[in-house]
Amino acid sequence: MNVDHVNAVCRATKTILTNHFGIEVTPLNPSAQKHDFLSNNVSVLLGINGDLSGEIICSIDEQTAINIVSIMMGGLTIEKLDDMGRSAIQEFGNWIAGSTAMELSKQQFVDVTPPVVKEGIVHFQGGKLFITVPLRSTLGLIEVHISLMEQAS
User: Fold this and answer.
1) pLDDT tens-digit map of 117-142
2) Between the CA of residue 54 and those of 68, 102, 131, 138, 139, what are the distances in Å?
3) Which domain holds residue 25?
């Protein structure tokens, strides 16, 4: 996995959080998982195809998801994630997908799949290397799990 790809994904996510939500984001120490990892209660999965292939998973706890949805809905008080809230989290994933595609396409051709939202703790397995970059924000902790590999020409 190329550090430039990891940095591009982190830049894209940070840009969305800073520009759309007006918050500061602090990257914390990254870690690597070779075989599997557990997600938080809400995950947004993005597939990457093209010159790169792999996955990006944004994992947040339920309160962070509620905080994100609240801001996306103009500051409304949100008690729990309902269908509208899940739709907002999926749109949040679209924003990250678009920003990520723009960052990565500066170096290679990529296509990002529509986001899939998963609720509940998920045990991701598959034997791929994932780099996890935790991002601390006033909305809560956002863990970005990145697994990207260059396709052979």
Assistant:
1) 888 877 777 678 888 999 999 999 99
2) 25, 16, 12, 29, 27
3) 3-150
Q: How far apart are CA 141 and CA 148, in angstroms?
A: 22
Among the residues of the chain, which ranges form H helices? 3-21, 62-72, 83-104
Rounded Cα gap, residues 119 and 102, in angstroms: 27
Domain count, the chain: 1
Q: How far apart are the first and last CA of the chain?
A: 16
Residue 14 maps to which CATH number?
Answer: 3.40.1550.10
Q: What is the pLDDT of residues 59-102, one digit of tens each?
A: 999 999 999 999 999 888 888 888 999 999 999 988 988 888 88
Measured between alpha carbons, how far is 37 from 49 in angstroms, rounded to an integer?
A: 22
Counted residue by residue, the chain has a size of 153
